[in-house]
Amino acid sequence: MNITPRLPVLAAILVAALASAATPTRSAHPNALWDVVHDLCQKDKWFTGRPAPCLAVDRALGVAVVPDLRSPTQVLVVPTRRITGIESPALLEPGAINYWQAAWDERRYFERRARRPVPRDRIGMAINSISARSQNQLHIHVDCVRPQVRQALIEREDEIGPAWTMLSIPLVGRHYRVRRLDGSELGTRNPFKLLAHGEPEAGANMGRQSMATIGVTFSDGSPGFVLLANDANGAFAESLLDHSCAVLSQP
Hints:
By secondary structure, this protein is an alpha+beta fold. 27% of the residues lie in helices and 20% in strands.
């Protein structure tokens, strides 16, 4: 199968999808990201062995990794099945894929774009609410965490426990509920389910939620994660990430 004549078209679709996916505005092409993953990356992987224009299609994890052409480092981790967004009941089904763990597994593609290994406490993953997303296909943003967000989580570690609680200060202008998870991997602990089952009001209206999962190293040296959730109007957890990766220049 000769895909060369299609490359300019693929590039145009991909740029359109990622340009809109990176901003909290509605897109004229809300299915562009799905078209890229389903109609291009998966088919090219099947026919040629190369998942162009994606960086990877992992059938075992059930995700594709899409580079954000407007950012030097960010990648989007996208399910290879049709899931519109955080509001999808499929995310809460028994046996549902833990897409957050899949995104954490695929952070190596973010590190490749960053051209260096990145410590866990400088990596963030985020998903936006219905009103703050441009694409009707679930996608988890993987990129650097904002330096001020990283510092706030370090300074307020004592406030972050095993149950959801409101952080005492806003992060990038919004207040977030936070929860601590210990361990180097999420494993079967699915942040979507932890929020929906742990916070009934959030579970009743998941479409309003915006979430982030940020890698941390706690003060005792142990690895873990901090989960963050916000349900304000236009919730946009991607704002906790820094697409210029200033945190990589910090000691």
